[in-house]
Amino acid sequence: MRKTLRLGVMGGTFDPVHYGHLVTAEEALVQFNLDRVVFMPTGRPVRKTHRHVSSSEDRYLMTVIATASNPDFEVSRMEVDRPGDTYTVDTMTALRDTYGGRAELFFITGADAVREILTWKDAARFAGLCTFIAATRPGFELDSPAAGPESEARPAVETMEVPALAISSSDIQLRVRERRPLRYLLPEAVASYIHKNGLYGEPLAG
Ligand code: NAP
User: Fold this and answer.
1) pLDDT tens digit string along 27-44?
2) Is residue 120 within 6 Å of ligand 1 at its C-beta?
3) N or C: which end of the chain has fewer CB within 10 A?
């Protein structure tokens, strides 16, 4: 009999991707016995209209560069290529349509984002689509997901402590602006991409 695929979907803006994200994906792979983890850079994040987000192509390419050496990691263009605002429920529905009952889906992301899931679009449908894996820093208490209009839906949420999540994309952006070191926070090839393309206020290299 064919085994059910255990597929992790690592959702994030990844602006930029860093070692905290890579360690999170690796931990999820091992702790939840996943077959592979697909990084899913958000196309147009719905909650970030008030602030600048790098282009989806830059964020996608940095994620490809960061994950290239790990055979258990892939990167999907699904959200980057889908027009309009990005809703996780659309992504998980598309994956469910693709795999049917042949895959069990796990959506991995930061605990701060998971707290809000009951307010996300079509929250009631998440319960049947996937299990959420909320990555937290040690000592962080994950409250129950904030209630939304469809609070009767209670998707399964597992938590996972990841010490490397002390690293954050916003701190890296600030470091670039202030010309402070990036070494050991993200793969060197991603740092080179940031410098070469003048992301986060960095003057263009060359
Ligand atoms: P965010 O609010 O920018 O991030 C919240 C926290 O979680 C930050 O500390 C962030 O750190 C961390 N984080 C984000 N992605 C992570 C990951 N994959 N692994 C570990 N930590 C992570 O979150 P976001 O990036 O906008 O959204 C996260 C995911 O939820 C995305 O896939 C997004 O599309 C989805 N989402 C969906 C809806 C919806 O469907 N309505 C609404 C909101 C979010 P860093 O800044 O260092 O990453």
Assistant:
1) 999 999 999 999 999 999
2) yes
3) N
